[in-house]
Design goal:
CATH class of the domain at 6-156 and 185-213 and 262-269: Alpha Beta
Largest sheet: 7 strands, mixed
Helix content: 25-40%
CATH architecture of the domain at 6-156 and 185-213 and 262-269: 3-Layer(aba) Sandwich
Shape: globular
CATH superfamily of the domain at 6-156 and 185-213 and 262-269: Vaccinia Virus protein VP39
Number of strands: 7
Strand content: 15-25%
CATH topology of the domain at 6-156 and 185-213 and 262-269: Rossmann fold
Structural class: alpha/beta
Distance between the termini: 30 Å
Number of helices: 7
């Protein structure tokens, strides 16, 4: 969920307390989508998986439960503060947690049956190199599953812009996108994934998209995100402290239907048995 830190231009620094809140909200929103794809790809006992930009523990733990004690899960991130398995995670595979930069460091050795990254590459400046390394880490017949945002496809926090509270929310979301773009994020990256996977030589490429329009987890995610970036919004002249306080109060009041950017899930298979 995060494979770039603040020093490398990553806007949502894992060192901040809000990061754990964001990871929990993202897990609630997107884990069902991720594991629907993982299960459809046939990830099962004895397989070896690489989870990139793991952020929180939910995806590594879910993969470990599927591959079992005879399999392996390697979870990597530039900042592994939040990646350790949750208490009572079960009796699946042992999860090896490594500090790792997917665009700069060699892949963990051994080859993988599944390589997965969620909401990572949109933030990585050298996305092409990161993707090359991910494909190269696949065993013959292995599957790559990349899930990434495409804010350009649906840029509004409140798609139903029915009043001043919604207009303020959408203006702050526009400021957030400006900050992301200034740090090298590609706000139209998600839609390119099917083509990029085919160009990388993968077969049986497919993709779909998902975004909730309203959910309690969207409310939690928005409040944590705005608190995390408020200083940057103010310093860049994109919002005032008073506007941010008003927006946070509007979010807390529960009357806004808050959406996320569409998450594009794309997957393909490395040729081989």
């Amino acid at each position: 969920m995060a494979d770039h830190d603040a020093d490398d231009g990553y806007l949502l620094d894992n060192q901040q307390a809000e990061a754990g809140i964001r990871f929990d909200a993202l897990a609630e929103l997107f884990d069902p989508v991720t594991f629907r794809h993982v299960d459809a790809l046939g990830v099962t006992a004895g397989m070896r998986c690489w989870e990139i930009g793991a952020g929180g523990p939910s995806v590594p733990v879910g993969l470990a439960a599927r591959v079992g004690p005879g399999g392996a899960v390697v979870a990597t991130d530039i900042d592994t503060s939040w990646t350790g398995p949750a208490p009572g995670a079960g009796t699946g595979a042992t999860i090896e947690v490594l500090r790792h930069d997917v665009a700069a460091d060699p892949p963990p050795p051994g080859g993988f049956d599944l390589v997965h990254a969620r909401l990572v590459l949109v933030h990585v400046t050298d996305r092409a190199e990161a993707l090359r390394r991910m494909v190269g880490a696949l065993r013959p017949g292995g599957r790559l599953l990349i899930e990434d945002a495409d804010p350009g496809l649906q840029p509004l926090l409140c798609p139903d812009e029915s009043g001043p509270e919604q207009r303020l929310a959408n203006r702050l979301r526009s400021g957030f996108r400006d900050l992301m773009a200034a740090r090298g994020a590609d706000l139209a990256y998600g839609r390119t994934l099917p083509r990029l996977l085919r160009e990388a030589g993968l077969h049986d490429v497919r993709a779909d998209a998902y975004f909730p329009i309203t959910s309690p987890a969207c409310t939690v995610l928005e409040a944590a995100t705005v608190r995390q970036i408020r200083t940057r919004l103010v310093d860049a002249g994109l919002a005032t402290d008073q506007e941010i306080d008003q927006h946070l109060a509007n979010v807390t009041a529960g009357g806004l239907d808050l959406a996320t950017a569409p998450m594009i899930s794309a997957w393909g298979r490395r040729p081989g048995p």
